[in-house]
Amino acid sequence: MNPSPVPELRVGVYGSVPEVYPNCFRFPEVHAGCSYPGWCIEVVSMLTQFLNITWTLVLLGNRTDKADWGVLKEDNTTWNGALGNIQRGEVDTVCLMYQSTSIRSQFFDFSTSMTTARSIFITREPTEEFGEYVFRTFE
């Protein structure tokens, strides 16, 4: 009995830096002439090479589109954006940074974390007035 072939992994992408850099020639096709396609595409490429499975990129918008991560619609059962593409079976995964939330976990499976991005907030230089507001909380 022949084993059934492993299906091709369909990876949805936007030109969303740093996950994907759309400046590679023939984007979204991945090829040797593209020195830095983006961290997500590089990780998917390494994983699929290790697992010996084929994969293809599915362009979810044009090169200038902002990524549409997706939100739960008012019916509380369907998603739009990239999460909707996964839910409808148009792609198997997407190259975007997601956090696992209780709502998303009801609809989607999450891998274990492979990389971590720390959040850093940039603020203006504090003024004396700002300090006064902060210390009022202790009055």
UniProtKB/TrEMBL annotation:
Subcellular location: Membrane
Gene3D superfamilies on file: Periplasmic binding protein-like II
Main localization (coarse): membrane
Organism whose genome encodes this protein: Pristionchus mayeri
Residue ranges of every copy of the Ionotropic glutamate receptor L-glutamate and glycine-binding domain listed in the record: 22-88
Assigned GO CC terms: membrane
Keyword Oxidoreductase attributed: no
Keyword Phosphoprotein: no
Membrane topology category: Multi-pass membrane protein
Name of the protein in question: Ionotropic glutamate receptor L-glutamate and glycine-binding domain-containing protein
Keyword terms of this UniProt record: Glycoprotein, Ion channel, Ion transport, Ligand-gated ion channel, Membrane, Receptor, Transmembrane, Transmembrane helix, Transport
A GO term, aspect molecular function: ligand-gated monoatomic ion channel activity
InterPro entries named among the record's database cross-references: Glu/Gly-bd (IPR019594), T25E4.2-like (IPR040128)
